[in-house]
Every structure is written in structure tokens, then in C-alpha cells.
Amino acid sequence: MPATFRGGVIVVPTRMLVSLTVLIISVIAVAVPAVAADAPAAIVTVEPPHDRVLSGQFEGRVGREIRANFGFGPIAYSISHKYRFFQDDPDHYEMGEGYLGMPSPCSCNWYHSGFFFIRINGSEMPLPASSVMAVESGERAIMDVVWHHDAADVRARFFGLPGENWLGCEVTIDPTAPIEQLSVNLRCYPSFFTSHYKRAGARRIQTPSTLVVEGTPAEGTLADNWWGVYYDEVFDVAKGEGEGPCAMLVLPVEGASVKFDPGDYAVGTTIDVPADTRTLRFAFWDFKGFTNEDALANVRGQANEVRATLESVDLTPKALAEFDLAAVRESLATAMQSEETREALGDRIDEIQQWMDETAPELEQTDGPPSVAAQEDLLRSIDEYNSFKWQVQLTELLNGL
Asked: Who's near 281: CB < 8 A, 6+ residues apart?
């Protein structure tokens, strides 16, 4: 018995109503992840943009910050994307002290307003970033920042693994034009903002091969200086001074060099890699509350293990790895065969068809991971793509009533 229309109300036969109810419950069960009894081992959340009207020399500008907060181990890290725009011209952007900061555990160390800079052919990443997304929580925490530079699509994928005290980062470069120069620049203020408080410190950088002292820049191969602990001999927690040291580790790249420039305030590090480098992986520590001695011992003790993890870890987001492209394609074919479904879903079908034509082929390639742009597009809208197949099934059922 088909559904009928009586007095403005659709009357559905009991058997069909039961079937419809079962389908809707099934759709909800699949589309909405189950809430685990225990909290996830690792989590990352991205806050809505926070805007602040600026004054003084930046009168007429608004400072924007988008912050990602991680929880996965004993140290609570956060990463922020920052930039400024003009109140009377919101499409006019400019960089402040940086565009990727680490506001916590503390504002010094890896600098909260800008500690991480990616430079291609001598120019910084464009502002604002194309996207800032939390892409995985659960067994690990992952967030992506993506830019579309004139010469490449670039992604910084920050990640945290359960129980670890370091925050990882993978930089991926997909060239769209010739690349002649590629570097990553780091900035920290070890333990204390010395000059800002009109106090003198004694900056130091300990690497596997050398000790770099304040005021004496040093340069060497990345292979010999693949980790560094940044500290201050005056502002040492053991002496009741400062916040504690910070550190970094980077997987060596053949032919790469590193320059250390420990000033009396900011400490710079420049890692120059061959122009054909496509991936760089880092680990960062903020040892807030640690003495210099304890921080040095911590990094020395786990450097080889962290390096091995960076060499082997697969950072493909779970949502991407488990995405069922075939199911979406099948749903699209079903929708295209039904005039009623095409009419009901309209523009939705056109959107999915366009995405299938433009992006899906990159997800099916077998000679490497999908491009930065393809992954960004999928991860930004994956819930919509996954829900499409349920929309088709539900519409088909309603058409049959």
C-alpha cells in the first residue's frame, strides 16, 4: 500500500514507517561516531578566530588569531595562526611578528607570536593560511595548516602521540612552479624575555656535536646537528629564574645545513635544505618548569627514539585512510539514474559530480599519497561527502513510498 496525502498530512503505511524508522536509525548510527566511555588518548581542537582591534602604530588594523589546543601527554601544547588585516579593507593582510606561534606551555621559548617560518624562493607563506583544521583526535592528535604559495602548495601538519612530551610537525611541499631555495626558520627566547625586562642572560644551544654560545653564530651540517637544546645559563629554573629551556629535533636531509644565531634576546635557527626536498619532520619541546640539566638529559635520553618515530610514523589522517570513495561514487551513480532523486538533491549532486571529476582521481593514484590540495579539499568537507550516500539512500526510500 503506497503512502497517501490526506488533509495536508502524509500518511505512511505501518510497514513502510517501520522500514523508514529502521533506516533513519541506521543512518544516525553510522553517521554519528559512538562516544567512547573513556576520553580519547589524544585530542586537538581549533578555536574560532579571535579578533582584537589594534592601536598605536597599528591603528586601523585588526589582529586575528586562530588557536589549536593539543592534549596528548604531560605537556599541553598549542599552535596559533596569526595575521593582521585592515578594518576598512578586510582583504588587505599583513604579517606581524610571525604567522605560526606556540602560545603554550609558555609565551617565550618557541615564541607565541611567531616561531616557525617556511620560506620558498626567499618569500614567506601567504596570509592568511588557506585552512587551519583539526583533522584527527583519538589514537593521536593531528591538525593541518595549509598555504597556497606562488611556487608550491605547502602543509604544516602538527601532531601529538599519546604519552609523549614533544609536539611533532611534518612540512610537505607540492611544487606548482620551479623551486630554487627552501628553508625553515625557527625563533625562540630560551626561558626568559631578557631584553624586554632589561636583564642580561647567557644563551646557549647544545647540539649532538657542539655547544653554541650567545653572540657567536655557528653553522654546520644538519646531519651533525639534528637536535638542539636551547637554554640560558642565567635564567635556569635550578637557580629560581626563568621558565625552563626548549628544544627541537629534525630528521636529517642529505645536503642540508643549519645555522644557529644566539643573540642576547631572540635566538634564531635556519635550516637550509636542497630545493628538491619535499618533506621535513620535526619534534619540538617546551620544558617549562625544567632545569637546564634535566632538559638536556631528557633530550639526550630520548633523541634516538624520537628520531626513529619520526622516520617511521604514518601521518595519514584516519578519516582520509578510511574514506570510502567507491561508496560515494556508487551513490552518485544511483542518484543520477533516478529523476526523482536528481530533482530532490539538485545542486548537491552537481557539487559531488564536480568534486569527483576534479579531485577524486588524485585520491585514487597509487604512486604516492594524495596531493596537499587534494587532502585539504577532502578533509575540509569529508563529513559532507560521507553523508551524501545516506542522503541518496533516504531520498530513494522516500521516493518509493
From this structure: 168, 169, 170, 171, 250, 251, 310, 311
